[in-house]
Design a protein that fits this description.
Blueprint lengths: L10 H13 L4 H20 L7 H13 L17 H12 L7 H11 L3 H4 L7 E2 L4 E4 L13 E4 L4 H6 L13 H14 L9 H12 L4 H8 L8 H4 L10 H6 L8
Antiparallel strand pairs: 1-2, 2-3
Length: about 260
């Protein structure tokens, strides 16, 4: 693709490029990012460089590629912890804690309680912890429109504060481990436990789902998870018809909420 002059770029050449990428096993979701970036470059060239770029050729290729499934949007995972899986993970972590520096059990429980991403957890600093108000600042939280400066103060629900307080203060970071190293350690324990198709990021999905199950409202969950659009949280609810048959009296006794912590 880099050898093709921008004014000579046609739908056929774009499609050939995608076929080439697919031949190496690159997923449609990854290739779509390439095509999106290409479209941005072509539009910039036409609008600001005043080049006679044929945007119609790009649009034609884009439509064809989507129709054939050669490019596609990200696949949203719905994986949740199954019965006994959390216990197996925690047991596996405990069995290896004598030679493993990374406290995987604490990190797993913390990820579920806070719904934080792995990279967010490993960036948390002691200076950003407010123990009195049970909150912590997440710096540069992931946001599709704002890469830097998207800091957010979130509540520390459940046992998340006690998990933090149990960590030794040996660094400015609460969990002073590389995000990649945490991922490797987690995968090793999951694999040894015989658990299939479970990623560390699935713990975020598990945590958000649990918040809904405990009776938190969507705007409250968004404050914990960092979602800017409530629409994106709908998939986490996974409500079934049977879930609506609740014990009304029990809810009233608990102050109009479910199992709130």
């Amino acid at each position: 693709m880099a050898d093709v002059a921008i004014l000579e770029l046609t739908a056929d050449k774009i499609i050939d490029y995608v076929r080439h990428r697919r031949s190496f096993g690159v997923k449609p979701q990854s290739i779509q990012q390439d095509i999106i970036y290409l479209g941005c470059v072509l539009k910039e060239a036409k609008l600001f460089a005043k080049l006679d770029v044929d945007i119609a050729q790009y649009s034609l290729a884009n439509e064809y590629l989507k129709e054939k499934g050669m490019i596609s949007g990200s696949v949203e995972r719905e994986r949740r912890l199954q019965d006994s899986e959390l216990g197996l993970i925690l047991a596996g972590a405990k069995a290896t804690e004598h030679f493993r520096q990374i406290p995987i059990a604490d990190l797993v429980r913390f990820a579920i309680e806070t719904t934080m991403r792995r990279s967010e957890i490993t960036r948390l600093q002691w200076s950003d912890l407010d123990e009195k108000n049970r909150t912590i600042l997440i710096r540069d939280r992931k946001d599709p429109k704002k890469k830097i400066g998207n800091d957010q103060t979130v509540p520390l629900l459940g046992t998340s504060l006690s998990i933090i307080q149990a960590q030794p203060r040996t660094s400015e970071f609460i969990f002073p481990y590389k995000s990649e190293s945490v991922g490797v350690a987690f995968r090793g324990i999951v694999s040894k436990a015989g658990i299939q198709d479970l990623h560390f990021h699935d713990l975020r999905h598990e945590g958000i789902s649990r918040l809904f199950e405990q009776g938190y409202q969507i705007q409250e969950v968004a404050l914990v998870s960092g979602h800017k659009s409530w629409k994106n949280l709908k998939r986490y609810t996974q409500l079934r018809a049977v879930d609506l048959h609740r014990d009304i009296l029990a809810v009233v006794v608990m102050g109009g909420r479910g199992d709130r912590r």
